[in-house]
Every structure is written in structure tokens, then in C-alpha cells.
Amino acid sequence: MRGAFSEAARDLKFSWKSLFFTDLAYKVLAFAVISPVVALALRWLMTRRNGPAVADVDILWFFVTTRSGLLVLVFGGALLSAVTALEVACLMAVALSASEGRHLLPRRALAFGARHAWRILG
What we know:
Elements: H1 2-48, H2 56-65, H3 67-99, H4 106-115, H5 117-121
Helix pairs in contact: 1-3, 1-4, 2-3, 3-4
């Protein structure tokens, strides 16, 4: 058990910069993709509302009681899951490279995720 932890610590020391920047790139990607979707859903909700403001209860009832609200929830969850799956795959590629004694640059990890996105998301 101690050997596995020491190897993992060695690999982390070897590849922490690549892991950090790959994770940071996916956080920026998730923010850039998911934020507009949420903003569009809320704007659409406001256009359906008669009053000038939307209360928290209105938002809740929109997402829970309407078909379009449920679709937005399902689509948003699927989008978040997809971005997370791609991020984890890229981080695993960096970690596997580190365990083999090779450096994998963040841009190469992102390219790996892009090349294998269809298989990862499948």
C-alpha cells in the first residue's frame, strides 16, 4: 500500500503543472459553454413571464413543472456530464503519461480529448 502511495505522489510531483493547466482549461471551457446556455434559459423564462422580475419560486416552478424546463434541466445535465467526462479523460491521459515517465503537455491532453471525444462520450 505504501508503495502505491509513494508512486502516486511521485507521479503527481512529476506532472502537477500539466494536471493543473489541463483542469484550468476545462474549467474555462465549462464556464464558456454552460454559462450562455443558462443565460439563454433564464432569458427565455423571463420572456414568458408577465411581470418585470422573476422570483426564485418562478424559476423553480419553470424547471419542475414545464416540459421545456425539464428539457433544459436534462440538456444542462448532459452538457455538464459531457464536459466533465472529457476533462477526466484528459486528466487520466496526463496521469498515465506521468506513470510511464513522460510529460504530456496540456495542449496535447486537450487534443487527446478532442480526438477521442466521440468514444469518450459514447
